Amino acid sequence: MHILLTTPTSVSVELENRDSYYTDFYTVYLNGQDMGRKNLNSFSLHGLEPAASYELRVVGKHFTNSITFQTLARRERIYHSTGGGTENETDSLQQTIDSLEADEFLTIQGICKVTALFLRDNLYLHLPKDSKLIGETDRNLFPILPADREENGIVLGTWEGRADDSFASILTGIGVKHVCIYGEGIIDCRAQESDWWVNHRVKRIARRPKGIFLHTCENVSLEGITVCNTPSWNQHPFYSRDLKYINMKLINPANSPTTDGIDPESCDNVLIVGTRISVGDDCIAIKSGKLEFAERYHTPSSHITVRNCLMEYGHAGVTIGSENSGGVRDVLVTNCFFKMTDRGLRIKSQRGRGNLAVIRDIVFQNIRMEDVKSPFVINAFYKAGNDELDERFLREAQPVTDLTPVFLEFTFEDITCENVSYGVGFFLGLPESMLKKVTLKNVSVSYKPDAEAGEMAMTAWKETFRHAGFICENLEELNLEHVVFQDAPSEKYILRNVHQVKEN
Q1: Cα–Cα distance between 386 and 121 in angstroms, integer?
Q2: What are the boundaries of each domain within the chain?
Q3: I need a labelling partner for 461 at 20 to 30 A (CA). Which of 162, 167, 276, 396 fits?
Q4: What is the rounded average pLDDT of the residues 403-409?
Q5: Per-residue DSSP letters for 207-218?
Q6: Which residues contact 23 (CB under 8 A, 6 or more apart)?
Q7: Where are the beta strands (DSSP E) in 247-283?
């Protein structure tokens, strides 16, 4: 057991085991007081006193763990909503944030309607239970982050891996350091009450805002809060570092367009723990921009850890790409539970991303998947809905150039896949830049009896499968170690230009 984060009024703790998000029930005691039973590997306790010492004890059926900690010593300032969610309070709340003393933290009480609030250095922003920030629904009232302006050497306005004018988000950080946003409250962007999701690919004034946008920020922690109904991506850290997302709830309707959960873009040292994500697109998508950003900034996404998280109803549990021109490296996804996502662990790219788009040192381990249609997908021919058919999607080999991405080794181990619909693994490299090696180790598979056929990956040729095993193309080596099928696949292997298959 270890502490993930302490604030003036809360603590977040993670158990150490090999369970996936859920674990057996245990009881929590704080200074001897019974705080109730829990069954999550990561939890937070709120309502604590600032600058106070505590002993935390966790008692399970076969274990007892204790730890001591002290909450942070800050004075509380309270902002009481005057509009009750009916009047825009952006200006008054922003003035309060800007006027905080160095030893204060701000608690927001009530329901506050805002457009965009800008974070500042050394900010502790507390949203307690029953408090809400709700988004303004008129896009004309939002400030715009312009594409022709830079902050800290990085373009300010961005959209899907390129420079573009974009609306500021309900919480926007630009170059801020040492920030913590926490509590049991809710940030509701109310996209369903506006026109954000109508003709969502059409740029009207500027590109849609995210839920929370962090631009070139450092040492930012978000804990406990619920962020929902976001116009586009729920969380978008951009060229930022040393970030923590702890025990959050990120919720968007399953049919809401391009509303990813957390999309770290060209970020370093990101920890995502104990977070439940249920959205209208990828739950987590690790990115590093398109070619222009890679050539200008040469910044991969690196040292990303996703642990003890629950992913539901998204297009995929954890995705790398498709905007990955700067490269992605050192990613660990472990102790997670994927439930009813279209795909489980997904890497997507395409020609034109460039040879800086090296994806390496990616490990997915100790994961449970339930009703995931396609657990493992690596797709170098990814075709988004707005991509035009061109040479990127020609199945024949093309000349290797500076625009050709590189795919190295991928490892998936200790994974249970229950009720698979389409197929287990879809591994599609480029004929001129083949996937080097894919290893599956200690993987158990069962199929959903009444499954319908569907697309395992988004490609131009839209092939469908039902109860398939492994569809591999342009792959140097497929290595299967202790891969067990509880039901017989319709076809175990469908191979094209695969150099070697090892099965133990």
Answers
A1: 38
A2: 2-70, 74-237, 282-504
A3: 162
A4: 87
A5: BPP-SEEEES-E
A6: 15, 17, 39, 40, 41
A7: 249-251, 268-273, 276-278
Reported residue count of the chain is 504
> Which string of b and e fits 273-312 if b means at least 16 CB within 10 Å?
bbbbbbbbbbbbbbbbbbbebbeebebbbbbbebbbbbbb
pLDDT of residue 1: 95
390/379 Cα distance (integer angstroms): 17
404 versus 154: which is more confidently predicted? 154
Asked if omega into 44 is within 30° of 0 (cis), the reply is no
Q: Which residues contact 498 (CB under 8 A, 6 or more apart)?
A: 472, 473, 474, 475, 476, 478
Q: Give the tens place of pLDDT for each residue, 112-156.
A: 999 999 999 999 999 999 999 999 999 999 999 999 999 999 999
Q: Which residues of 397-428 are buried (b: 16+ CB within 10 A; e: fewer)?
A: ebeeeebbbbbebbebbbbbbbbbbbbbbbbb
Dihedrals φ, ψ of 92, to 5°? -70, -40
> Dihedral sign, CA of 156, 159, 164, 165?
negative
Q: Is it the case that residue 83 has pLDDT exceeding 90?
A: no
Q: How far is CA 209 from CA 133, 172, 414, 446, in A?
A: 15, 10, 38, 40
Alpha helices in 69-149 (DSSP H): 90-98
Cα-Cα-Cα-Cα dihedral sign, residues 14, 265, 228, 124 = positive
Average pLDDT over residues 160-179: 98
* Token digits of residue 239: 């060229």
pLDDT digits (tens, 9 = 90+) for 426-441: 999 999 999 999 999 9
- 47 — phi, psi (to 5°)? 80, 20
For 140, phi and psi rounded to 5 degrees?
-65, -15
Helices (H) and strands (E) in the chain, counts: 2, 44
Distance of CA 61 to the CA centre of its chain: 33
CATH architecture observed for domain 74-237? 3 Solenoid (2.160)
CA angle at 245 for the pair 159 and 306, rounded to the nearest 5°? 90
H-run or E-run covering 228: strand 226-228
* Residue 349 tokens, joined: 């790219």
Q: Per CATH, which fold does 2-70 belong to?
A: Immunoglobulin-like (2.60.40)
Reply yes or no on whether the pLDDT at 385 is more than 80: no
More confident residue, 226 or 390: 226
331-376 pLDDT, tens per residue?
A: 999 999 999 999 999 999 999 888 888 888 899 999 999 999 999 9
Task: Indicate the pTM of the whole model.
Answer: 0.97
CA atoms within 13 A on the CB side of 52: 15
CATH class of 282-504: mainly beta
Q: Quick one: pLDDT at residue 355?
A: 84
Active-site amino acid positions: 281, 315
pLDDT of residue 403: 87
Q: In the numeric block, which tokens belong to residue 4?
A: 């993930």
